[in-house]
Amino acid sequence: MRIAIVGSTGAVGLEMIKILEAKSFPVTSLKCFSSPRSEGKFLKAFGKNHIVQVLKPDCFKDIDLCFFDASDEVSKEWVPHAIESGAWVVDNSSVFRLSQAVPLIVPEVNGELLDDPELRQTKLISGPNCTTVQLVVPLKIIDQEFGLKKVVVSTYQSVSGAGTLAVSELKNQTEDWVKDRPSRNDALPYVIANNCVPKIGSIGKNGFTSEEMKIMEETKKILGLPNLQITATAARIPIERGHSESVSVECINEVNIDQWKKALRKIGGIRVIDDDSQVQASFSAHGDKVDIGRVRLDPYSKYGLLFWVISDNLRKGAALNAFQITERLLKK
Ligand SMILES: NC(=O)c1ccc[n+]([C@@H]2O[C@H](COP(=O)([O-])OP(=O)(O)OC[C@H]3O[C@@H](n4cnc5c(N)ncnc54)[C@H](OP(=O)(O)O)[C@@H]3O)[C@@H](O)[C@H]2O)c1
Questions:
Q1: pTM of the complete model
Q2: pLDDT single digits (tens) 15-74
Q3: Of 137, 141, 152, 184, which sits most exposed with the smallest number of CB within 10 A?
Q4: Can you tell me the distance from the alpha carbon of 91 to that of 319, in angstroms, rounded to the nearest whole number?
Q5: Rounded Cα–Cα distance for residues 40 and 50 (Å)
């Protein structure tokens, strides 16, 4: 496969390269694109140095598959060029996620949509927001076993969810905090060291942020439940990798925890953690699993269930999910 990665020098792009190498993906050529800031740098992959290039109108010629891991603006402008040049695109931006013509995929939840012959014409697949990916995996099984009625989710999101610059910023600010000196912030709109901020993205007219709306709308689309009652609160916390979520659900039928856990354990990619002391973001970071723990019945309703879910936002939340989409397409 002739592969291109747009955003190859970013947090998700670099993870994408690592995954393609680790899984011995059959790459015959790799083109690495980024902004003019990184033009001319070298990225080492598959035993070779690849020069980082900027996007140009004919740059997708001779590419079979292109991963877009840059930004909404870049995807909006360049995804159509890649498709016109004949490439398949797996896009991790939010631009096409809610478009009816574009499948929004988490393979173990709705991977069957990749079998649609229409895709051979459109050639475009979207990957969801990182917080949505890890949420829909356990929700799908709840819906399957007990019927899903209502979801209330609160997220505790790491700074790598905002890209590489936010990670350096957290490190610098933490040093400032330890040395008791003032901090500056550019990548995030607030100082995040020693802090917790319930605002990711912009606040809309209904009071929800753009991040919260993504979680709510994408979850409905992926689960195929347009009437699901779902609300989200998204907070940024000062850790490098791994998003955590506290989830409370109300089901149509009575909940049985053992039945749910048994069904979860049949899904590859999920780890059910029974030992509560092992449910920690740092234990899930850099891993490939969606980790589920702290499972409790609602003491006030036999239809209610509460749990905690953690996953690495750069891997299952973005790059690994995109890779798994490709794997499934290739099998087809
Ligand atoms: N981070 C996550 O957890 C996560 C999860 C799911 C989805 N996503 C999505 O994945 C995408 C990448 O996120 P990220 O966290 O990896 O961001 P990032 O670390 O800030 O990286 C952004 C990448 O895009 C490149 N870029 C910026 N402007 C460009 C341009 N005009 N032309 C070509 N390349 C350009 C950057 O190049 P330079 O290095 O030269 O600046 C860099 O390689 C975003 O759409 C994001 O919403 C991220």
A1: 0.97
A2: 999 999 999 999 999 999 999 999 999 999 999 999 999 999 899 999 999 999 999 999
A3: 184
A4: 10
A5: 9
Asked whether 82 lines ligand 1 (CB < 6 A), one says: no
The answer to whether the beta carbons of residues 131 and 155 sit under 8 Å apart is: yes
Using the Cα atoms of residue 324, residue 329, residue 331 and residue 332 in order, give the sign of their dihedral.
positive
End-to-end CA distance of the chain: 15
The SS3 of residue 257 is helix
Active site residue 130: yes
Q: What is the pLDDT of residue 234?
A: 98
Cβ neighbours around 107 below 10 Å, total: 19
To the nearest whole number, what is the mean pLDDT of the chain? 97
Q: Which residue's alpha carbon is at the smallest distance from atom 29 of ligand 1?
A: 35
Specify the pLDDT at position 331.
86
232 Cβ below 6 A of ligand 1: no
Judge contact between 90 and 105, C-beta under 8 A. no
CB-based contacts of 145: which residues, under 8 Å, 6+ apart?
256, 259, 260, 263
In 3D space, the residue among 296, 292, 314 whose CA is nearest the CA of residue 305 turns out to be 296
Q: What is the DSSP letter of 115?
A: G
Helices 257-265 and 130-146 pack at an angle, to 10 degrees, of 120
CB of 158 shorter than 6 A to ligand 1: no
For residue 43, the SS3 value is strand
Is 59 considered catalytic here?
A: no
Report phi then psi at 59, rounded to 5: -70, -15
* High-pLDDT (> 90) share of the chain, %: 98
Q: Which domains does the chain have, with CATH numbers?
A: 2-127+318-331 (3.40.50.720), 131-313 (3.30.360.10)
> What does the DSSP 8-state code read for residue 209?
B
Question: What is the distance between the alpha carbons of residues 123 and 162, in angstroms, rounded to a whole number?
Answer: 27
Per the document, the length of the chain is 332
